[in-house]
Amino acid sequence: MAASEIRPRRAAAQVRAALADTRVVLINGARQAGKSTLVKLVAGDRAVERRDLDRPQDRAAAVADPVGFVDQPGLLVIDEIQRVPELLLAIKVAVDDDPRAGRFLLTGSSRLFGMLAAPDALPGRMETVELWPFSQGELDGGPDGLSTPSSTQVRA
C-alpha cells in the first residue's frame, strides 16, 4: 500500500448509514485512531464545509459566534468538537430548526458527554460511532477474530 493511500475502515459504512438517518453523527475515539482520515474517506467527493477546532482561527470563530459558526446549508464537519463545547447548544438549535439527516459530522478525542456543557445537548439527535485503532482484520484485509472491534455504534 502506497503511503498516500487511505486504508479502508470498517466504521466507514456505519458512519455513512448514520448520516443517512441521523442529524448529527459523532466519531469518537482516542487521538491518532484515524477520525479525521475516516471523515475524509466518508465525505469523498461530497461538497462539505470543514472546520478544525485545533486551528486557532476556527476555534476563535466558534467561541465568538457559535450560532454563526454552525450556520451551513449542507454537511458541516467539525473536527475536535470537545475544544469548544459551547457549539453543542448551537448545533441543537440548528438541527431542531432544520431536522434533515446528515447535517453535522463531528469528531472528538475525549468522552464528549463527560464534558460539563454536553450532558443534555444532543440526546435523540446524535449517533455516536466509537472508532478504535485498526483491528488486525483491517490491517490484514481479512475478518476480525475475537480481538477488539474497530468500532461500535451507540445511539444518544
Question: Could you characterize the architecture of this molecule?
Answer:
This is AAA domain-containing protein. Pfam families: AAA_14 (PF13173). There is one protein chain. With about 160 residues, the protein is α/β, with parallel strands linked by helices. It has a single domain, classed as 3-Layer(aba) Sandwich (Rossmann fold), CATH 3.40.50. It has helices at about 10-20, 35-45, 55-65, 65-70, 85-95, 135-140; strands spanning about 25-30, 50, 75-80, 105-110, 125-130, 150-155. It is globular, with a radius of gyration of 15 Å.
Throw out a few tags for this protein.
alpha/beta, Rossmann fold, 32% helix, 19% strand, globular
Radius of gyration: 15 Å
What is the first-to-last residue Cα distance?
37 Å
| CATH level 1 class label | Alpha Beta
Second-tier CATH architecture: 3-Layer(aba) Sandwich
In short:
The protein has 156 residues and is an alpha/beta fold. It has one domain: P-loop containing nucleotide triphosphate hydrolases (Rossmann fold).
